[in-house]
TrEMBL record:
This is non-specific serine/threonine protein kinase. The keyword Metal-binding does not apply. Residues 450-714 form the Protein kinase domain. PROSITE patterns: PROTEIN_KINASE_DOM. Its EC number is 2.7.11.1.
């Protein structure tokens, strides 16, 4: 497990991946490159990560952080990594017009020019690492990007770049990592076979297609999920001897799965879910011993799973629901007729080529018949008419199949298209390993046999321990007891699928689990051990009350944190099915990581309804509005800098906020340490949505989408105020 996690972390961790050097900033920049940095700051419209730069800033000695890293060597910049807070395309609603507009999403303003920006960027000709993430960049990626002749890592993910990926990328011979994920790129991918050093390719969450990209065989990681690829899986990919991770999920791939895919020499992670792959797999195929994760769910597969992926022995996780497979989990499979009909409807285009050839043959025969005589011509015309009638009839059958497919695909199905295991690969860029199933021995080793000294607390039906995995990473192990002592296979799979969804940037995410029933202890019920990431930077409550920490939280930081909390709540409510409501939303349960990004802990673990630990559904109506109310309390505490200790204090603080809004003067209400750091309209917007969240009448409380929209608007107002250099007196 340690080796697997280490290898995934190596090639999926944003800008530092594949950088085989660890340069130390020992240089003083030239005046030319210093000017370029200020130009980039202006073109990026002064993002938060670049605040505080002055003419006396020594850029080569700026402390590295999660949002900014500048590395110098021999008086030149060789690494520039900037992470912003602009919401990426996959996390924002698509515009109704279907066309991109910088006003419709969190992109940079209309005055931004991608051509101008990359013209300036490429003047830093010594760059080896460029990482520009979530900065709101929009427009086409200019071909001039290939001017960076020494570039090894290019990561411009989570922006709004559109159009085709320029073919000039193919000439960047030194590239080892190319990450263009989470943009709006469309069209065909240029030929990348010439990039002989390329080890990581991540083009996920775009609109690329329809053909499978042409790539070199030096790749270690290939992520193409969530695009518009609709070919068959090429056999050539099975010759990639170094490939460890292949994720082509959520596309339109059809045809059979090449059996040799499972036995590639280095393959460890294989995600083919959410396509239209059909047919059966040979029962005699073999799997690479290092293959740890396989997902073939939501396809059109029939027959039985081969033993090497059908078995749950060892550490291999296999997901295969919603096919037409012959398994004991009939509840999670379609009938054979479904896959047969769907496969006909999405049959590869070879069939139409045959029909085209047949039509040409008919025309040739017609010409030959005309030479024979008028009678034969008439006879052939009759035959052609009959044949066209047959083709038309066949086409009607095809159209009905397509219509049936449309109806079936859009009809509601439990737990379809809601699993988030594939999506966790995107989260590896923030340090999450792929979801996995642990053994009891691993849980015991991690917690030192549940040593009381590792206990982090306990409730009536759960205990929490601190643990250390074999690779040294720190985790939390939550022990939840079920009512029943025996657990069916179908319920076990339900638990696995449910837990594997709980992974998000703003949650203390689930890394894996273990289900154990101790047969020799009749009084011990079945236990689910849930392994979660460990966040050690303290809670939001500490940053609000501890004077040594609260100085860090100016108004922009507070807004970013509350937006993160709202996004976490939105994911719990709408990002998984069924949604999770009634989540014990308290400021003490909002943890902050090293970059001050919010992570919700102690949310409900939505185990199936038969489990006596927690009721996952808690009623959408009541639970949702309760979460909104508790989110309002957290917002109130962040704004005022005071913790709510009783309902009386809550009412008094809410009343003060309402009075401040009524007289357009909030200065005496807000935390004193943020005076001078906020735009009044930004603060006012946040205060207004806070009061609405705290409405006694549940029906007047906003939806989480409304809360998030208002907080994001408040942040945009704040960013505009910051970039204008406005230091006017606050009201």
């Amino acid at each position: 497990m340690g080796n697997l996690r280490a290898s995934f972390f190596f090639f999926l961790t944003s800008t530092t991946i594949l950088a085989l050097y660890t340069p130390i900033s020992t240089a003083q920049l030239t005046q030319g490159e210093t000017r370029i940095l200020f130009q980039l700051q202006k073109l990026l419209e002064y993002p938060q990560a670049l605040n505080g730069w002055t003419n006396w800033t020594n850029f080569c000695f700026l402390p590295h952080s999660s949002s900014l890293k500048i590395t110098c060597q021999n008086n030149h910049i060789i690494e520039l990594s900037i992470v912003g807070n602009k919401t990426s395309p996959s996390h924002t609603p698509k515009p109704a017009s279907g066309k991109f507009s910088p006003n419709s999403q969190q992109a940079l303003s209309k005055t931004f020019s991608s051509d101008s920006f990359f013209t300036v960027l490429t003047k830093l000709s010594n760059l080896r690492v460029v990482s520009l993430v979530s900065l709101g960049l929009w427009g086409p990626l200019p071909a001039k990007i290939n001017r960076l002749k020494s570039l090894e890592v290019l990561n411009i993910s989570s922006n709004f770049l559109y159009g085709e990926i320029p073919s000039s990328v193919s000439s960047m011979k030194t590239l080892k990592s190319l990450i263009l994920a989470d943009n709006l790129f469309n069209g065909s991918v240029p030929d990348l076979k010439s990039l002989t050093f390329l080890q990581e390719l991540n083009l996920g969450y775009n609109r690329l297609g329809p053909e499978f990209p042409s790539m070199g065989n030096s790749l270690v990681s290939v992520i193409l999920r969530n695009n518009s690829l609709r070919s068959e899986i090429p056999l050539k990919i099975t010759t990639f001897d170094q490939l460890q991770l292949l994720d082509i999920s959520a596309n339109h791939f059809g045809g059979p799965i090449p059996s040799s895919l499972f036995s590639m020499p280095s393959i460890q992670f294989l995600n083919l879910a959410g396509n239209q792959l059909s047919g059966g797999l040979s029962v005699n195929i073999t799997c690479n011993a290092e293959l740890k994760f396989v997902d073939v769910s939501n396809n059109l597969l029939i027959g039985k799973l081969p033993s090497c992926i059908g078995s749950r022995s060892g550490n291999r996780t296999v997901l295969y629901s919603w096919n037409c497979l012959s398994t004991s989990y009939i509840r999670y499979q379609h009938p054979y007729s479904f896959c047969h009909k769907e496969a006909l409807a999405v049959k590869p285009p070879s069939r139409s080529k045959k029909e085209e050839s047949s039509t040409k043959l008919g025309l040739i025969l017609g010409i030959i018949g005309a030479i024979v005589g008028i009678i034969v011509v008439v006879g052939l015309l009759v035959l052609i008419i009959i044949r066209r009638t047959n083709i038309r009839t066949e086409k009607n059958i095809y159209d009905r199949s397509a219509a049936d497919k449309m109806s079936l695909r859009s009809s509601p199905r439990p737990n379809i298209e809601t699993r988030r295991v594939p999506q966790t690969m995107r989260l590896t860029s923030i340090g999450l390993a792929p979801y996995r199933i642990f053994t009891l021995e691993e849980i015991e080793d991690a917690t030192n046999n549940f040593d009381p000294s590792n206990s982090m607390g306990e409730g009536s039906q759960e205990k929490v321990y601190k643990g250390w995995l074999i690779d040294g990473s720190v985790v939390l192990v939550k022990c939840l007891k079920l009512k029943q002592k025996q657990i069916s296979q179908s319920l076990m799979q339900n638990i696995e699928e449910t837990l594997s969804k709980l992974r998000h940037r703003h949650l203390v995410s689930v890394l894996g689990h273990c289900i154990v029933t101790l047969q020799d202890h009749p009084n011990t019920a079945t236990t689910v051990f849930v392994v979660l990431e460990h966040i050690s930077n303290g809670s939001l409550a500490e940053y609000v009350t501890d004077w040594r920490k609260k100085e860090l939280l100016k108004w922009p930081q507070r807004m970013a944190i509350t937006i993160g909390v709202a996004r976490g709540v939105q994911f719990l409510h709408t990002g998984i099915a069924p949604g999770v409501f009634g989540n014990n939303m308290k400021i003490n349960n909002i943890l902050l990581d090293n970059s001050l990004s919010a992570k919700i802990s102690s949310y409900k673990i939505p185990l199936p309804s038969k489990v006596g630990v927690e009721n996952p559904l808690h009623g959408q109506d009541g639970g949702e509005k309760e979460d909104i109310y508790q989110l309002g309390i957290i917002l109130l505490e962040v704004i005022t800098g005071k913790l709510v200790k009783s309902s009386t204090e809550l009412n008094e603080m809410k009343l003060e906020l309402e009075k401040g809004l009524a007289v357009s003067n909030l200065k005496n209400v807000v935390e004193s340490t943020i005076h001078g750091s906020y735009a009044y309209q930004s603060l006012k917007t946040a205060a207004e949505i806070t009061v609405t969240c705290l409405s006694e009448d549940q029906t007047r409380r906003p939806s989480i989408e409304d809360v998030l929209w208002n907080l994001q608007y408040a942040m945009q107002v704040q960013e505009g105020w910051n970039s204008s250099g406005n230091l006017s007196t606050q009201m």
